Amino acid sequence: MTRPFMIIVGFGAFGELVARILADHADIAINDPSPKAQDKARALDIAVVDVSAVARADLIVLAVPASGLEDCLTGLSAFLRSGQVMIDTCSIKEEPVRLMRAILPETVEIVATHPMFGPQTARNGISGLQMVICPVRGQKWRPLAHFLRSVLGLQVLVTTPEEHDRQAAVTQGLTHLLAHALGNFEHSPKIRTRSFELLMEAVAMVSSDAPEVFEAIVRGNRYVPEVRRILLNALEGSNKTT
């Protein structure tokens, strides 16, 4: 069986994780203008290609921040051909889907995804971790979902961009809001409970995220303001005496 040719656009920490996970299943190249990213790819024996090479790819995986997605898609669109599959990995889904629908040729299939893990949480393997898939255009998401589930062992959740963002506003938005707030407190008191230690472990899992990840999750998700309001009201309520 012929191995698919996949180009990963963006070779930061997550792009590198994707390349490592899929190295045994696809022929991989990366496209990234950063000399540092290119050097890292070559050190891992991964080909570096220019943007025009996306015309040869079966799959294009976008591992770029949500803030840079529009420019990225605009730069790629002229080189795309019918039947290719475009996969984004942004932490929010409604706005990336809107952009992909608006910018990409109608003959390109679109699969919006959100791996619910990153380099830190995947350091012991990805089997059993969650992968959200939002089918947007075409049917090739079905064999992709089967591969992710049966070969990589991921827990695949198929949903809409709207439902993803609504639930992620709590599971990610709330976590990042709390982590941001807890950054103002002392993290290493000698008097500590196990529950505090677990809380700090959760904070540590997101504290290394790039600033643009926080921006996308907290400011790019239209459901997060309501989550913040509920949180603030609950905190205010805890100060009231009866």
Main traits of this protein?
single chain; 242 residues; alpha/beta; Rossmann fold; 2 domains; 8-stranded mixed sheet; Prephen_DH; oxidoreductase; 6-PGluconate_DH-like_C_sf; Prephenate dehydrogenase
Strand order of the largest sheet: 3-2-1-4-5-6-7-8
CATH architectural label of the largest domain: 3-Layer(aba) Sandwich
Average pLDDT figure: 93
Biggest β-sheet strands, sense, barrel? 8 strands, mixed
CATH topology grouping of the largest domain: Rossmann fold
Structurally, the number of domains stands at 2
Structure summary, number of beta strands = 8
CATH superfamily of the largest domain: NAD(P)-binding Rossmann-like Domain
Strand fraction equals 15-25%
Order of helices and strands: EHEHEEHEHEEHEHHHH
Instruction: Label the overall shape.
Output: globular
Poorly predicted runs of 5 or more residues: none
The share of residues in helices is 40-55%
Kindly provide the name of the CATH class of the largest domain.
Alpha Beta
Figure out the total of helices: 9
Radius of gyration: 19 Å
Distance between the termini: 70 Å
The helix/strand class is alpha/beta
